[in-house]
Amino acid sequence: MIGNISSGFETLRKLGGAVLLSAGLVGLASPGLAQTYPARNITFVVGYAAGGTGDVIARLVAQKLSESLGKSVVVENRAGASGGIAASGVARAEPDGHTILVGQSAEIAINPHLLKGLNYNPDKDLMPISLGAVVPLGLVVPGKTPYSTLAELVAGAKSSQKGLSYATAGAGTPSHFAGELLKLKTQSNLTHVPYKGAGPALNDILGGHVDMYFSGLPAAMPNVRSGNMKLLAVSSEKRSASAPDVPTVAEAINAPGFDITLWIGFFAPRGTPNEIVTRLNEEINKILVQPDIKERLLSEGADVTPMSVEQFSIFVKTESEKYAQVAKQTGLKAE
Q1: Strand partners, 230
Q2: In CATH terms, is domain 9-135+262-330 a member of 3.40.190.150?
Q3: By CB neighbour count within 10 A (0-12 exposed, 13-18 middle, 19+ buried), where does 163 fall?
Q4: Could you tell me which InterPro entries the record lists for this protein (predicted)?
Q5: Top CATH class, 136-253
Q6: Positive or negative, the Cα torsion across 79, 84, 89, 94?
Q7: CATH code 3.40.190.150 region(s) in the chain
Q8: Average pLDDT for runs of 10 along the chain of length 335
Q9: Taking a C-beta distance cutoff of 8 angstroms, is the pair 284, 65 a contact?
């Protein structure tokens, strides 16, 4: 059974006081380095095509971080290998805080348990900086589809000889887990169609080339509001505040325990000075709680929970352990 990735938030919050004190002491060790950083422009690397949830959050934070640090923060999309191309590239970058991975669940917590021959190790090659957001996945279908509920969609998949297709942001991503879990729970005929990120997948939903997609809500909601897509259900344990009338998958198909969400976080190459990591953590956390940013993310269904470096490190470790168990239980393998 897939656990709720937000279940550990209370524990992490309770750790907050001691952890933040520790982070502050680390920052005091060499104040000069943090004060002279950055020396040049910073690059945020996103492992998926433009238009996905991670890309949306990266660009929101990049704009604000440019203002606070006084240097440009450029977002670069390096799609492929379920975020692995971007992750391996950042892992080999100079550890000076000027190349940052805007990582997601797949390349950090899932790939190591599904893909053989990875040329990076998230635990050894990357340093957690800060959690950006946690978002439910929304099951979206083309606006002109005949299905208006998840029950109708499942019935259509079962009645069609060829079944239905479901898009994902790549093999082994949370959208892949969600699609396979839906297939298992409903015993439906669903065919996986992987893309290099949410943007291309959403484009093919809009074009009617694929039947459905578990998308991060921030990336999908504009098209849902415009009527170009229908939102049939959300993948989280609880309903989303941004779409309170939309049922959870667990509700819609009577599948207790159906709870998969997507998270986005910031990572530096291993060896980056702790002073710089702490500075970035503090600056990003300040941005996330700014009223305009927080309101934007919350309105799109994202859960904003700023964490210290140590808290986020614990979160990442817990997520990796969870997906290792899920992969073993489901037998899911990347294609």
Answers
A1: 141
A2: yes
A3: middle
A4: BUG, Bug_dom1
A5: alpha beta
A6: positive
A7: 9-135+262-330
A8: 40 41 42 79 95 91 97 96 94 98 95 87 97 94 96 95 94 88 91 92 97 93 95 93 92 89 95 97 97 89 91 94 77 66
A9: yes
